Amino acid sequence: MRSQSSIAYEKIKEMIFQLELLPGARISEVQIAKKLSLSRTPVHDALRRLASEGLVRIEANKGATVSEFSDEEIREIGAVRLSLDLLSQQLASYYGSAADFDHLDQLAEICEYASSQGDVYGRIRKDCDFHLAISEISKNQKLIEQQQEIYQQIYLIQISKYTDIEDSMVQICHHKPLVTAMRKRDLEQIRSLTYQHLFDFYRLNSYLPTGFNAL
């Protein structure tokens, strides 16, 4: 049986991800507790947990707000994502089976379908699913845990930054070529596609590809 703190955590996170609570918005413990029919203690605990995951910010005398990422913070998250994605993909190219790569191709197609239907948020969710599935193939539990945490922040950034399906579709054009590169264990192509995949949205520094050539 889930604790009240776990229930509050899931409900508040859902409100954030559905943009019921917008980035930068103050989160009232009293109002949330009333809405969820809970006491303030589990709501307080849930907000602390969300803060530890980067989805909420808590400041003394100001309370909690939904995280709103600056351009520099987004660039920093993009650099971390680049390093984790590259590690995941290179490990997946080593450990992955034909069935694993077939599954990734299926996820890529689901992502494309969401885009074709004009479903921006569905496309973003499936994009995260695609990349997290790659990390699962890596067989590195610590990497999987780090990816799961940072992709929550990535999801929040994307749903708050993308404004239409055309912008959103740019993110999926490299999925299938990336799967092909992993099947072939073509590490150079993996690095190239991954950097192309992330460069514009995160406004990554141009020196990064050179820095990752040694991986």
UniProtKB/TrEMBL annotation:
Q: Where are the transmembrane segments?
A: none
Name of the gene encoding the protein in the UniProt record: mcbR_3
Return the InterPro entries for the record: GntR_C (IPR011711), TF_FadR/GntR_C (IPR008920), Tscrpt_reg_HTH_GntR (IPR000524), WH-like_DNA-bd_sf (IPR036388), WH_DNA-bd_sf (IPR036390)
> Does the UniProt entry include the keyword Ribosomal protein?
no
Domain HTH gntR-type residues, every copy: 2-69
The reply to whether Phosphoprotein figures as a keyword in the UniProt entry is no
Record-given protein name: HTH-type transcriptional regulator McbR
Which Pfam families does the record cross-reference, listed alphabetically?
FCD, GntR
Kindly list the GO molecular function terms attached to this UniProt entry. DNA binding; DNA-binding transcription factor activity
**Highest taxon of the source?**
Bacteria
Q: Which residues form a coiled coil?
A: none
What keywords were assigned to this record? DNA-binding, Transcription, Transcription regulation
